Amino acid sequence: MENKLKIVLIVATTSGKIIYDYFIKNKFVDVLQVFTLPDAKNVPRHVVFPDLKNIIKTEKVNDFSDLILSLNPDYIFVEGWSELFSSEILECPKLGIIGFHPSELPNDRGRSVLAWQIEDNYSQSAVSMFYYNDFPDGGDIIGQEYFKN
Predict the structure, then answer these.
(1) Is the domain defined by 5-148 classed in CATH 3.30.450.40?
(2) pTM attached to this predicted model
(3) CB atoms < 10 A from the CB of 66, how many?
């Protein structure tokens, strides 16, 4: 029997749906659970997932820390989520939590990054992939992809 990586996804925007679709198509991972925001038809970035049994719609993932711990994931992948995670969730996955952030970290940490970049007339930015730690958007950077605005 082949060993698959066990992952949990916590995603809030259409980029999260792209990540979800990528993992669903690949046979090397098992998507154990997906967390996304409740339906909000007036929010243009909202992710629309099929109604599958492993999708929970919530604004507070920390309320599900016992469930996440019981899944014993190898990784948790996070995209577009503004909630800070409890220490139980941060320490849960065997290999870490990987996040995606729409800036050239360590610059522009926090929320509403794209709005501030537009306000400040950025001509270039990046998407960063990083390991989570207990400081918001502050973990070690895995990689960055640059783009012109």
Answers:
(1) no
(2) 0.82
(3) 9
